[in-house]
Specification:
TIM Barrel; alpha/beta; about 425 residues; eight-stranded parallel beta barrel
Length: about 425
């Protein structure tokens, strides 16, 4: 089944959590300081569609709409922030671009921005672990002379919105983006030594970190803690990219090394072993963030399809049912009510039943980008109220809010009626 839950992986998660507690005791930060030792060593809208049965309770929906705690966020992807194609790459030009983002988000009822600040093992802020991003308008590793993240957090808070820093934990390069990797990129630092060369992997058209190694997981955790320590962000979020494949060739050396130290009866399968690696990374990131800023939320936005999540090592059942992994989960429910495989109502019910840990909030990611398009075999064509009905259904399912992908779609002329119908629910 598409939505089958691998309950045995929850046990793996608990074991990984215990492992990371031991690791954090060994490598813990003191007095909020962050170390850099990790780098030194080593689907059709139809006018005949009725409201889903779970959304017919108008009183419930109205009550939820007035809640000041409801998450109403928009994702701002790295493409929106890209200054490399702009004729004016100055600090002022960047600030003007971001000012427009904040203004548009407020006008459309948002209370939170989820901004892509580290998409490719690079950063839109000065970092002890990652080189400057090429998105500032120059080559990776070149200081633009200002701090984009500092301005974005300040401006967002000044306008009364919250700011979540969006990170891709394992991706370094895809399809020659970025075209040049800095000499100080962790990829080049790891590859420069034989003993750390396997910490990164060349796979098909990309380059990735290998989370099988404790030093790599520590790098990812330190990088997240660095943001929480240096900036008053309200949250840090990982997106849906973990292992880029379920094929065994990706990390064969590391898996064979693991297997050689285990008896046949206690040896984890490849997918379970990978899930344990990601679970260990998630718990270490969670603890690293809390060590420096207890109020900063750590969240994840996995794919809606649980089988896809499992193939990439994302043990979402453990994350939603065990304390110490995340503060929130936001599955990307980019499907319509009449999707032939994953109908929206079924999807949100599955995730509502999956996320049971009281301290883990459940948000639904909604695919604004698909509205009035031919996506999913035309399931979204001529749509005007799919997003609004999905918000109502989500509220009836007692989720904690919504995140919309993506910012630029708020500006698309053909989506204005969809957007307007959603905004009404946020007033």
């Amino acid at each position: 089944m598409v939505f089958s839950i691998h309950k045995h992986t929850i046990l793996l998660g608990i074991l990984a959590l215990a492992l990371v507690v031991i690791i954090s005791m060994t490598f813990g930060r003191r007095n909020g300081e962050v170390t850099s030792s990790a780098l030194q060593s080593d689907s059709s809208k139809s006018t005949s569609e009725s409201l889903p049965s779970s959304a017919v309770t108008a009183a419930e929906s109205s009550s939820a709409s007035s809640s000041t705690d409801e998450m109403r966020a928009v994702w701002v992807p790295y493409m929106t922030l890209d200054m490399s194609r702009e004729s004016d790459k100055s600090e002022q030009a960047f600030q003007q671009k971001f000012d427009k983002i904040v203004e548009t988000a407020k006008q459309n009822g948002m209370n939170t921005l989820v901004v892509h600040v580290r998409p490719f093992a690079d950063s839109l802020y000065p970092s002890a672990y990652f080189p400057w991003s090429h998105l500032t308008g120059s080559t990776q590793g070149v200081d633009p002379g200002y701090d984009p993240l500092a301005y974005m957090v300040q401006k967002t808070h000044e306008e009364g919105l919250k700011f979540h820093a969006w990170l891709n934990p394992l991706r370094i390069q895809v399809n020659q983006t970025p075209s040049i990797l800095s000499e100080q990129n962790p990829y080049n630092l790891y590859r420069s030594k034989e003993e750390t060369a396997d910490y990164v992997v060349d796979w098909e058209n990309g380059k990735y970190f290998n989370p099988a190694y404790p030093a790599v997981r520590k790098l990812i955790a330190d990088g997240a803690a660095e943001i929480a320590h240096n900036y008053p962000v309200d949250g840090i979020q990982f997106d849906d990219y973990f292992y880029p494949t379920d094929k065994e060739d990706f990390d064969q050396k590391a898996y064979q090394s693991y297997c050689s130290g285990q008896s046949e009866g206690s040896r984890l399968s490849l997918l379970d072993w990978r899930a344990a690696n990601i679970n260990a990374m998630m718990t270490e990131v969670y603890q690293a963030i809390k060590n420096v800023s207890a109020q900063t939320a750590f969240g994840v936005s996995p794919q809606v399809n649980l089988e896809n999540d499992r193939k990439m090592g994302a043990d979402v059942a453990a994350w939603g049912q065990t304390k110490g992994y995340v503060d929130y989960i936001c599955p990307q429910v980019y499907v319509n009510f009449n999707h032939p495989v994953l109908p929206y109502e079924n999807a949100i019910e599955t995730w509502r039943n999956l996320v049971t840990q009281p301290q883990v909030k459940l948000y639904f990611g909604l695919g604004l980008y698909k509205t009035d398009s031919n996506a999913d075999s035309g399931a979204w064509e001529n749509s005007t109220d799919v997003m609004a009905r999905q918000v109502e259904a989500g509220r009836a399912a007692k989720c904690d809010g919504f995140m919309f992908y993506a910012y630029d779609d708020f500006l698309a002329q053909e989506k204005q009626q969809e957007v307007a119908n959603v905004v009404k629910l946020f007033q």
